[in-house]
Amino acid sequence: MKEYDFIVIGAGSAGCAVANRLTADGRTRVLLLEAGPSDLRFWVQVPIGYGRTFFDSRVNWKYLTEPVPGLGGRTNYWPRGKILGGSSSINAMVYSRGHSGDFDDWAAMGNPGWGWTDILPYYRGMEDHELGPSPHHGSGGPVHVAELGPAAHPLARVFLDAGAEAGLVVNSDLNGETIEGVGLYQVTTKGGFRVSSARAYLWPARRRSNLHVLTKAQATRVLFEGRRAVGVAYHHGAREIEARAGREVILCGGSINSPQLLQLSGVGPAGLLRRHGIEVRHDSPAVGRHLQDHLCYDHVYRSTRRSLNNDLYPWWGKLRAGLRYVLFRDGPLSQSVNHAGGFFRSRPGLGRPDIQLYFSPLTYERMLPGKRRIMNPDPFPGFITSVSPCRPKSRGTIEIRSGDWRAPPVIQPNCLSNDDDVEELLRGGRFLRRLAATPSLSSVIAEELKPGPGIASDEALVDDIRQRAYSVFHPVGTCRMGPDPADSVVDSRLEVHGLGGLRVIDASIFPTLTSGNTNAPAMMVGEKGADMILEDAARPNG
Length: 542
Description:
By secondary structure, the protein is an alpha/beta fold. The protein has helices at 13-22, 42-45, 50-53, 100-108, 116-126, 154-165, 197-205, 254-264, 270-275, 308-312, 315-328, 419-436, 439-442, 458-468, 519-538, and strands at residues 3-9, 30-33, 63-64, 77-78, 127-129, 143-147, 181-184, 186-187, 189-190, 193-194, 211-214, 217-225, 228-236, 239-251, 267-268, 282-283, 295-303, 340-344, 355-360, 382-389, 397-399, 410-412, 445-450, 470-471, 502-504.
């Protein structure tokens, strides 16, 4: 088929949800294009396979930023999923919905229907939560949310005790009535397998005759007639093919690929487009602007007790863990690398938490692609505590590098360009030292490896932050939602300002970052966006 009702570009966290919902009636014809391959790969389905896919160009875009002044001129590595399921197929699987105030902020910015009471039903509807149905959680939805419980590493319990000693509440549900405090993370796994958006949404829909899923098919431009999107050109094999959409073209490529495709299609800042020889279809200044991301800062320790390093570094440990996984679908391979964490307020007077915590019961070196093929644990017991500011103020950009769709875009996140972000990370680093000094955590620390006890002054810590802080791969905002076409790309119905038949439904529409990991909010946007499409299609003139 070359003609469809809807064409969905990108089978990631949001795109799979959109494709599932739009084809549920059995009649609406949908083409789903994905630039990457199938997700039927062992290291994609195994939860801790994250370490294997981190640098795998077969399933990962492996983007690099431009040198970032705020990070000492370093480039940052940005893995993004190039596979069915998108980044949900290669992420660390933490399920974090965000703070209720994040979404109330969205509504207050001129986006009706996006407040917490509006979007909570979508979260509850998509969840199959192990805690069962409640005012906070849903049951029976497509996305299984698991509790670590007894499977959490013993060091994670030490971390929780340390958090309590440092003055934080121990929270048994970090997606419950409040996200504040420390607790065990909830993760998107089931029966020892990763629950990506593809497994949750696409696998049940693949047999529908009205859904055509095409892998290794990269969209090169949106096709227009006048100011209305009518189709897409895509590269598949050695051919460029065109497909038409009778109703809408829906971009679900994520915060890098969606603005890139819009710009390649002549939708974006006019000066940028002309500079690369692209005809300006629609001057939309905000396309690729307002880039936001969560930055993370680690403190790394050698441990006096066993950690996952002991289980996963030696060859016999890998063999034992592999056999345990094959036989019982449990053990280290069935888990995320992030066992615990939480949210706290780094200074008095804040209305909600401003920093996220992570605890990982293993240590490993993060290197640029090409330096290492996989992430491998260190040969000694160790663990990592980390902080990540929830709502950074720094803003970056995504721009096409040329008019060639094959060229990776220019990514400049401008991390730590805002002084408030630097101060926030410094307060976070100070809190990690406070955690390490608690009776519980100090009892299991043999040595602080990074930053090291010699890094003590504020100036030294800030310098260490600039030298070692890194992205945790939560880019948003590059096609942000808002009422003003001069400063946003889509309206509250996710329709591109000034154009017809074209929506963006993915994390790029977030007006601001949510507090925490962005996979769950991206799937929620997919659910809500699909609902809007179906509502509009049901209207007499839809």
